[in-house]
Structure formats: structure tokens, C-alpha cells
Amino acid sequence: FKSYFSDKYDIDYIEYPLKSSWRNGLSASIKIAGDCAIIGYNGNMSPNRQRFSQAHETGHFFDSLVLNTGESQRFEDLLEKNYGESNLPDEWFANISAGMMLVEESGLLYSLRQGISFQSLCNLYSVSNTCLNIRLKQLLQFGYQVNSYYAYEAVTKYRLSNDNSDLLDCLSRIESYVM
To answer: Does 72 have pLDDT greater than 80?
Structure first.
């Protein structure tokens, strides 16, 4: 995804040369200047975490374009501003955006119907359990209008026991209703 966004939206992705205490504390940050951006990321983290952090910050870039804020945010800013509930909608948007960038819908649906395990899907897409968990809930809630409780229950059942029957049931009911 990086090469596409880098070319299409003038985003530079730069690995931070972090030392000691910052190695585990900083995932990524973004600096936005007009309609371009620099996303710095921690190369000491796992490759899956690096990809998620880069996609998450790219989500902040699109949020900035849509809202026309041009706001930049660094990890240090969050610490100084007492990062809290007022930041949750922006973080939520960035997490959903990252999931959509890293786990595309048609392949995900195909894999679910093939009975691929939760962990195998994580490996297939090179994402963490958390990322896939968020992506599946987002797909059910916003793509298929499933209530949040049922989406949570279906995804949790799949994640913990590799039983995707509730997920598939939900998808098939919605698809048969639309057809």
C-alpha cells in the first residue's frame, strides 16, 4: 500500500532511527503540510506493527484531507495534551482506515467462506490479531449493518475458537436479503 499512497498522494514514509527508551514507546507519527505528508515509523517494531502504524497514520492523513484540518500529530503531542476521549473518534477512524488498507474486502470474504482460520488470515494479510479483529467488526457493522453486540460476539467466537459460523450466517442473511 505504501508505494501507491506515496505516488498518488505525495506521502513519504520514513523509518525513525530510534534509540533506547523510544524504541518501544513510539509507533509512528505524521506531519502534514497542505496535501502532502511525512509519516515516520518505528523500524524496531515487528513488521506487522510497522505496516499497521503506517496505515493508521495514512488514515489520519485522509481524515485531515476530508475535514480540511491539515493537523499534524506527534506522539509527544499526545503525551502533552493528555490524550483522551476527545481523540477517540480520530483514532477510531484511523484504525478502521488501516484495517481497510491492509485487509481488502473481497479477499477477506472469500477467505471466510473457505473456512480459513483466524490466525491463518492474520498470517495471510500480515496483520496482528487486533487489526483483523477490528477489520472484521468494521465489515460487519458498517458493511453489513450488523448491530455492534452481534458483530462483537461473532468475531470473538471466530477469533477464540475458529468457529466462523455466526460470521457466515450473518453475511448470508444480509446477502440473501439484498438479492
So the answer is: no
